[in-house]
Fold this sequence. Notes:
Blueprint: H1 3-110, H2 120-129, E1 137-143, H3 149-156, E2 179-182, E3 190-194, H4 205-211, E4 219-224, H5 230-241, E5 246-251, H6 254-263, H7 279-310, E6 318-320, H8 323-330, H9 341-359
Parallel strand pairs: 1-3, 1-4, 4-5, 5-6
Antiparallel strand pairs: 2-3
Helix pairs in contact: 3-8, 4-5, 6-7
Amino acid sequence: MFFVPFMVAAIAVMTGRAKQLNAEEEAERARCVADEEAAKARHAAEEAAEHERARHAAEEEAERVRRAAEEAADEARRREEEHERAAAEAAEALRGAEEARLITERRWSEGVRPECRPSEDDIIQMRAKYLYSPNFLHFAVVGSSGVGKSSFINAVRGLSNNHAIAARTGIVDCTPQVTRYPDPRPNSRIIWYDVPGAGTPDVSDWHYFNALGLYIFDCIIVLIDNRVLESDLAIIRACQQFINIEVFIVRSKSDQHINNMACDRMPPGFDPCDPDLDDETRCQFMQFKFKERIRFVDETRQNVQMNLESKNLVPQKVYIVCKDAMLAVWNNSHSPRAIDEAELLNDVRECTGRCFESVS
């Protein structure tokens, strides 16, 4: 009897132990399942994160490729623009070189080499050679040989050609070198320079302006005779290149030319100096002389302006004078032969004032 209850108790214990083991096994299985699920979840999360990183990387790469493509396109456009700009600059440089060549050739043909600009040493040497003084104005009288430069200088200095201190005059060119003539009148601050004629065997046209140092003068008076020469135009162009040099164009020997024009209208053999001329003939000659004077003045002005325009030079006045009228007017007297002498005197005085103002 005692054995039965013991067996029942043992069976109960064993049954409880089995249930406990089953519960533990079930819990272990549940834990393992949970661990597997957690691992799967972690793996899925890692895969999702990796996919996200891959997507970001792909987007970044796509953005990098896009930027690189845009930069490449911009670089291509920039290079194309640089190429076009370089081509345009090269074409412009070529045009400029061609224009410079044509200008150089034209200036050569006109008698002045544009590249021959004087250096500071050249200017210093020429000023020393011509005794240049900042307290005076220096006027150079230039022009072709035989145009009357020495007679003009004598007249503007108030001297006749036979005066003791007058510049030497003659049929041939009497000025072998630049000659300095101070103005003898009291308080005058002008020094006149008689310059050898251009176009002589010793002085070629293109060499004239630079070799004689005309660039140091404050004013240049270009004397012309029957026609405007290439050497005259070359000097005028050179003066206009130097903004500090004023230039006057002066037609000399007007009385001689007007007299010759009037004589050409008289009968053959006519001599205006014949003391036996009758009053009627003399009156007819004076009428012709009056008419020819008007024609001479008009034709001279037109001819000078036409020559200036043909060389693209700045138009300017031409002063028509003769030495006897110059001498009278510049000595405060009157001459019936005068045309532009008084106006020239006035403009030279104004030029003198401007020059002194510019250095004061």
